[in-house]
Specification:
The protein has a domain of 76 residues: hypothetical protein PF0899 fold (2-Layer Sandwich). Helix content is 23%, strand content 31%. It has 2 helices and 6 strands, in the order αβαβββββ. It has a 3-stranded mixed beta sheet with strand order 2-1-6, covered by helices on one side. Strands 4-3-5 form a 3-stranded antiparallel beta sheet, with no helix packed on it. β1, α2 and β2 form a beta-alpha-beta unit. α1 crosses α2. 21% of the residues are buried.
Amino acid sequence: MHEIGMCEGLVELIQRQADGRRVTAARVRIGARHAVVDDAFDQAFAVAAAGTTLQDTAVELVITPMTVACDTCGSRAECADPLAVCPVCGSDDVQVSGGDELVLESLTYGEEAPDVSRHPR
């Protein structure tokens, strides 16, 4: 499950970006060539974030397609299947480009809980 390694790095990156702020959500764009499975990614993030300030962070995963150029029929199309074939003629004689990115697009920060020790009753 290669998602674990990705998520461990992602947790480290988010923690650096957050700089102590509470993160409630993160949006990650990942290319189809990475062959990430949504459920496996969610589980891997939960494991990587367990025991950290990110353990309750919701992660939105956006899969971006790759471009497939067929050498047999000349067509070009987007494809989300890492085992790409031409969607027009079915040939596997294709050139694939793109779909290899891994980008932390955004973070949503939550409100910090008030420090009640500084406000006596």
